[in-house]
Every structure is written in structure tokens, then in C-alpha cells.
Amino acid sequence: MKKSLLAVALLGAFGVASAQSSVTVYGTMDAGVGYTNGANAAGTQTTLESGQQSYSRIGFKGTEDLGGGLKALFVLEQGVQLDTGSSGYNTTGSNTSTSTTSGNTGTFSSQAYVGLGGNFGTVKLGRQFSPLYETYASIDPFQNGFSANINNFFGNSSSTTSVAAGGNVASYQRMSNAVTYSTPDNLYGFKGTVAYGFGEQAGDTSAQSQVGASLSYINGPLTVAYAYHQANNDTVVGSVATPGETFKTNFIGAAYDFNVVKVHAAFDQNQQADQTLKTQDYMLGVTVPFGAHSVFADYTHKDNKLVQNADADQYAIGYTYTLSKRTNLYTSYSYVKNKEDSYINTDVAGNSVSTFQVGMRHSF
């Protein structure tokens, strides 16, 4: 009898402990066919791509209730290339599924952090999305996905380096060696995040470091957001950071949901090194949901004051059809018109680039 009571007590204690912590396996599997024209000198290209609408990944996340409103949390997330079965992920918007950039491969290269959360907000340590990149997703009609996503133009200080040399490789999307703090979600509609990524260079604590911040206000159908990012000594040429270069960007955007249509608008200004001249980007977009369908489109313009004849324009439209809460079909088309010295989405200066995508995404 005493043994039975002890067993019941132990099981009860174990049940309480189990209820205080949880681990979830999650992921997104996205694959489809992509067609591009003008991305390189060889001509058109048709590929089976992984991660067209959003990058394919598998992850583990968990929380533990520490009492008094305090909780521990973690995320381990790895990109997956569905076309080859290999690990890693594409830079969102790349024209082929074989295109990866430095830092995008390896175990848990997508996200890997541990943190504490409570009434004070959340502190996280590890590899994370930057505040700028997450702010883009809240405003971009394409939600940082598809070949037409906002990252083709925004956050790039120049459009004068080819895709092969890394001109459209944005080093701000994820921050390694990062400490972030985010405010609680209930501050009268306001939400803020600050982030610092250690450069970890001997003798110079600022070298290779990154700083990020964002502030948003959400009130019913209205979203207004600002974000800042600075990468010290981190201008990317291929996969090599050039010493002495500093990248800065300021972004502001807004969206308003009228139910039948949602409108989006954004502006950013980018500065590279000690250049007094800057580049500026403008975006106007719409999202039209109806039943299981959603249509979204935008127009984006780069005003390149840093280099002459390097302006560019993008026209894009996308469509999704929801099969269930976790599965959807999609397609998108984008057209980038580069001036003679602009390389956006292409290896050939001045090339116009057309991209068509169609595929399927499943989340779990």
C-alpha cells in the first residue's frame, strides 16, 4: 500500500514537472519549379528549387516554466535543401536553389539560441534573425519570400556588384554571436527590440560587430515600423568581409488592412563606408485576400545616388491558394529592370530579369 502511494506521488510529481516544460518539433517544407531569364549570360534557366515562398527548415523549440512569471526558452533550427537533401538554406530571393552564402550551411545555421522571458520582456543569446529582417517581414507583401521579396532592393547599399560576387548577399538577415532584448507585447501596441552581435576580433571589439534595433506600433489594422542596422567592417564581397567598410541602413514602413485589401508602403536609406552619397529604396504594395485565395503585388524602385546609372525597378505579383491550415500552393512572377550599371538579380550589368515560380509549401 505504501509502495502504491509512493508510486502515485512520484507519477504526480513527474506530471507536474512535465507540464512545466515542453519541446516542439516544427518545420516548413517548400519546393517548386523556378524559371529565370536574364540572371546570367548563359540565358534562361529552369530549376527545381527548395524554399521559394519561404526557406525549408526543421527546428526544435522549447520552454520551461521557472516560476514567478519567468521562463527559459531555446530554438535550434536547420535549413534543408529539398532538391538535394542537403542541409543549409538559400538566401531568400536567390534565383537558383544551388545558391547559398557564407554562414548558410552547417548544423543549426538558421537559428540557434537560448534565452529568458518574463514580464520584463525576452533576452536571447545566439544566432538569430536581425531586427531589420524581422521588420521587413511585417511590411513586405511577399513576407520576405519569393524571388520578388523586399530584400532584393532594401538593405543593399549598392546594386553594382554581380550576384556571383555577392552583390545581393545581405549580411544583416541573421546575426551570429548575438544578444537581443525584446520588450513585452502589451506596451499599448508598441514593441521594441535591440540587438548586438559580437565581432569577436582580437584587439578591436567593434570589428565585424553588428548593431540592430526596431520599434513597431500595431493598433488594429494599422502597423507602423522602424528599424536600423549597422554592420562594422562587414561589406560582403563573395564570402569575404572587407576590412574598413561599414554598412548602415534606416528603414521605415507601414501597412493598413482595409479587410478587402491591405496596402503596404516602405522606404529605406543605405550608406556604405564613409561615402556621403547613399542609396534609397521605395516600395508600394497591396494584398488582396478572398476566401482560400490571396493575391499580392508590389512596385519597388532603387534610387542609387552612390553610382551613376545604377537605378533599378521591380514589378511583382504573387498568388497563394490555401489547401489547409498547413498546406498551400503558390505562384509568383517578378520583373527587374536594371539600368546599365545595375546588377540586381543578375551577373550581367543592365540585364532585365524575369522570374517565374510555382510550388507547394507544407508546415508542421
From TrEMBL:
Which Pfam families does this entry report, sorted A to Z? Porin_4 (PF13609)
Q: Where's it found, cell-wise?
A: Cell outer membrane
Q: Name one GO biological process term.
A: monoatomic ion transport
Q: Which InterPro entries match?
A: Gram-neg_bact_OMP, Gram_neg_porin_domain, Porin_dom_sf, Porin_Neis
The membrane-topology field of this record reads: Multi-pass membrane protein
- Residue ranges occupied by any Porin domain in the UniProt entry: 7-340
What are the entry keywords? Cell outer membrane, Ion transport, Membrane, Porin, Signal, Transmembrane, Transmembrane beta strand, Transport
**Its GO CC terms?**
cell outer membrane; pore complex
The protein's GO terms of the molecular function aspect are: porin activity
Residues of the signal peptide: 1-19
The protein here is known as Gram-negative porin
Originating organism:
Solimicrobium silvestre
Taxonomically, what lineage is the organism?
Answer: Bacteria, Pseudomonadati, Pseudomonadota, Betaproteobacteria, Burkholderiales
